[in-house]
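Note to self: keep these together.
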Amino acid sequence: MRWLQSTLNLIYGRHLPVDGIMSPEVRYSVRRFQRSRHLIENGIVGPRTQRALEDAARRIARPELPERFVGPLFGSTSAPIEDRTHLSPKSYRVRTRPLSKVDAVVLHQMAFRRGNDPSKYDNVKAHYTVLPDGKIYLLHPHTAHVSTSNGFNGRSVGVEFAGNFPDTKGVCWSPKTNGCHLVTPEQIKAGRALLRHLQKTLGISHVLAHRQSSGTRQNDPGPDLWFHVAEWGKRTLGLSDGGPGYWIRNTVGPDGNAIPDAWRTWGQPGQPGARSGLGGGVGSTIANAGQKALDTLRAGKEHLALRLAIAGGQRDEGDLTNLLFFSRHPERRGRRLQRREPGFARLAAEWKSIRANLVRPALSATR
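Structure:
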């Protein structure tokens, strides 16, 4: 029913409440649609009416343009979604499914990053990819059942974010071969816009994590991505993640796991995942530093570690300052500085000294 209301809103530009209730306004819109398609005008969404609605929604959400653009995101001024369904392997599309069954988005991390060339991601097994520059690419139609999210496959759209993101301890999977990356601000903005877009076009009601359906994907998508995209979607769009403790069984491997409590609060002020600023959290700072820079820092070579982190693409002075500050104070475990804590003035002065005397000169030397 939510899908029906969202589809009618998309087709007619209406603002029907997406509440799952067959109101007189919804029934009227169904009859109007049936009349326009020369179907039996009874207000009932049978198989023929459903197929016609799905076809109409696809034509609006994916206009046949030479540039193969899906169109602008709803409520966003960012670049449109680019359609690359003609370039992705059709063998990944196990079967066709009705859009009325799709009610969720599942977030993933790729565990690798290959720059911003979309052609290097065409073989990713997901409906969408979100690259570091925030560009969004559609690889498979929404009607395609793609084996990307285990037990969520039948009901979900899979979204893969390019990057190998750390867990709550700052550890990335196989960093020597796959790197260790930060979720970029552009990816966060794009992820939020995509959630809003899919809610309006498909009527999605859930945002889920791959870890909830697979025990081998413990850090998928990871705390940074979950907090800044999924938790935002829950607060702003009213989406559900199934609730605390929610996970499903996996028929081909270990069962899924619930969302950790730490992920839900990861980016809040005072938490390890809070971004930038004075002692702003070690989680995202470690993610973007690179394994070689971290190993050098552990050896006590601050200047060299700083240069390696900058060479690896990290240029945020707050994150770089945090990198050195937290390496000097491992006892803090990434805890943000609080004005009321003992020794705040001394620690704050040290943080500012690192920024002024080490970080800023290092950044200036690379410009």
